[in-house]
């Protein structure tokens, strides 16, 4: 199926479905294609099982036919699904499919392509390589060599089975092996993570998939607590790191203020407008390493006002950065 065919088909149906139907010129204009291509589009739609009729054109002096859809009369469920999808629904599906690029490893690519083909065949979504929507995957983690681990995670999460994991911690660099109960596979910032319980310590942890060295499914099954909600684990966090919450107060210059106004940095944020166009941003969150990294990314356009210990750490980092250029 060629590029953006489904999109053109949807556009054609918009005019064909009208009570008066549509002539070939109207279809070509709506789909932004030639009349010859419009005829090929109609032929392809009929081959796909979309019931169409044509009749003499009563509007005007030409003998050109008008095309109409009889999908509603035929009660074809597949066609009804296609017609019922609006642009927002197609956007949601397209974005979801693009986000699946994280899983496009050698072991899973065939399964993902199968899903996409089924959606296209069912007239539920657009074909691959649509130019309508784009999800940027720049900066995504490389999961080459982790295909079997990802497959094992998906199986363990689905079957609710304990696993033995060999994991290399980022900060300490230590590699340890222990038992986990994988609750949820999570995507964050173009990376994959497992939310899991470590029975030995009765604590919930977040493990980065790229730092898993080995993962094996065990015999034991587990039950997720009824009170478990993965979203609750990150309530009040700036990103995904949980540590001591802080009251953050930042001053942004007028050059950068416009970008801060456009985004929700935190659910509890407060923005104070100043006369010179700059702003004061206040919010309460935890995750100091992520907050520091975010602040440093604005360079001289931001100043930490509170808390004092964060201000001192930022100053210390800046001094160390200066040494790299001396």
Radius of gyration: 27 Å
N-to-C CA distance: 58 Å
Assign the CATH class of the largest domain.
Mainly Alpha
Number of helical stretches of at least 4 residues? 11
Beta-strand residue fraction: 15-25%
Under CATH, the topology of the largest domain is which? Arc Repressor Mutant, subunit A
Give a description of the structure.
The chain is of the alpha+beta class and 326 residues long. It has three domains: 5-84, Winged helix-like DNA-binding domain superfamily/Winged helix DNA-binding domain (Arc Repressor Mutant, subunit A, Orthogonal Bundle), CATH 1.10.10; 147-224, SH3 type barrels, CATH 2.30.30; 246-323. The protein has helices spanning 5-16, 24-31, 35-47, 71-74, 77-84, 87-99, 109-121, 147-159, 254-261, 288-296, 308-323; strands at 22-23, 52-56, 65-69, 161-168, 175-188, 191-198, 203-208, 212-221, 246-252, 270-273, 279-285, 302-306. Strands 7-6-5-4-8 form a five-stranded antiparallel beta sheet, covered by helices on one side. The protein has a four-stranded antiparallel beta sheet with strand order 10-11-9-12. Helix 1 crosses helix 2 (24-31) and helix 10 crosses helix 11 (308-323). The longest helix has 16 residues, at 308-323. 17% of the residues are buried. The model is unreliable at 72-83 (pLDDT under 50).
